[in-house]
Request: fold
Amino acid sequence: MEKFVAVTAVACPLPLSDVDTDQIIPARFLNRTRAEGYGPYLFHDLRGQAGFPLTDPGYAGARILVARRNFGGGSSREAAVYALLDYGIRCVIAPSFGDIFAANAVGNGLLPAAAAEADVELMLRALQEAAAPLCVDLTACRISLGAQAWGFAIDPVWREKLLLGWDDVDLTRSHQTEIDAFVALDRERRGWAWI
Amino acid sequence: MRLATHVGKQGMAAPTGKTLFEKIWQQHEILRRPDGTSLLWIDRHYLHEGSFNAFDLIERRGARVAYPSLSVAVADHYVPTRNRDVDKTNPAILEMMTRLSRNTHAHGIRLSDWHDPGQGIVHVVGPERGLTLPGLTVVCGDSHTSTHGALGAIGFGIGASEVAHVLMTQTLWQKRPRLLRVSVTGALGPGIVAKDMALTVIARLGADGGRGHAIEYAGPAVRALSIEGRLTLCNLSIECGARCGMVAPDATTSAYLRGRPHAPADFDRACQDWSALPSDPDAAFDRELTLDAADIAPTVTWGTSPEDALPITASVPDPANMRDAGRAAHAAEALAYMGLRAGQLLTDVAVDRVFIGSCTNSRIEDLRLAAAVLAGRRAVVPGLVSPGSMLIRQRAEQEGLDRIFIDAGLEWGEAGCSMCVGMNGDIVAPGARCASTTNRNFRGRQGPGARTHLMSPAMAAAAAVTGHLTDARALLTGRV
Reply:
């Protein structure tokens, strides 16, 4: 997994709340494979709308998205994260995220940065006025835009995982002895649970 | 009710009791790291056609599936529900079926493909076969895995990377969510069902109000629900953003499970273990929400988020009257997308078609309820009825429900996710309005430009008969 330490890049304002994963990538594109890439389908059905910021040349090359509350709610489709990453986005800033989306994001090196609602509104306003690079620094949990700066929250375990580019499977395998001991005991204790 | 909770919170006497969720969590905790993350054992892992990304991840590592017998695959998302002749008619769908069968075969995982008489929607089939049991941890690469909590299990949706992790290790790293108890007191009125209860809870909590929480549904009105009603209620937990939803196992649960194909051989021993699972009287929850069932009316959604739900007797809300600016902006956009006018009576909203099905509402009791409204009546708009499993389809035909739907002018389909998500090609036309028993009224969910109103099977059937959103109670009088 690619590490996330800090990213300074053009940020695209997406002044929408409840951007569910069906909006991020509509279901009809989910039969594509990762090798084919999901980037072209990111926000597929919203992109056609006049004034949709991501297609505005002013925000070309954006690697950061700023959105309103409950970003990534709904379906568990990890392709929503793949679509963002394949398009080039490394960080989404919003007041809150769908739980499954956030877990999928962290597992793939995409930072879900939870900022205060009022701060997100300030960022949206600033970015809508003029495209500008944002700096998202995970070591300090700090977002800066010119002279302005805001904090953001992320689960400390997720933060460490992103900073180190951790691999869960390798970590889990290092605990194989404990897993085997659990299984042996569980088969005795809850025999009915096994099929 | 449950005063101990509040006493504990005030720091007078720390509660020692445990919740249903905590008991199951503890039994599955292999280890806990100092940072609070637990490695959990997973008892059941359900797979579907969408799981191919996870198998690709395994292949890239050259890894194997650790416990193939604990994973069960069912074809549901892409399976045609109108014409099963995919071999000849639809190469793209056939490819999805082939990927699933190739991947499951390569790893020795049992599969019900579209030819299997036991095929159905994964969240219908798991409980139906007795694969989902009280006290288990159940995961699946699908957000509606919360459904399985109806049997007293911890069930939650995961993404492809986590699916791959479970396949390779049969475990998951998880942080314990906060606990929210939703208590529903009293009794639901006639013609008012679990769907109405769930939509009312979501409207109250908001689409992200349950974020980071495990919900336990409790109280007399929940306890009075059948297992099928509880499955509908828990299914919709994800629509308020909750990690999972659950109902403590009781006599209703064991009566439902006894004799099912995968029910434990030593059933009585299992029942004994299950009887210790319900939350202790002095167990503490981080949050509590209490509703009176008497306040729950037949409920429909008007907007593009499941939280946009109102009693059928209400009018379309006016964004101008909303104090919260974000909420008003959402409502204005939702009304524009849905083609509705602020102040319009919900019962004046004309529909173009109906859909009865999905992991939310496609079980035999759902079909019986819709049939009770439709018997001897004609639908004035087209509609599709898709049973949740091929076994439910068979049962419905034995009961003559298929004749009622067909005589009413509706299409009697086969089992799958169908028009809930439209991945099999069964979509609602752009701009068309669908009265739907599904779980998401998101923009474009049932097809690009489709407009979805969520409601119970009785309400969808009533909309089919009248051609507009309708209070089903009037059409159910003397029938249930």
Notes: The two ends of chain B are 32 Å apart (CA to CA).
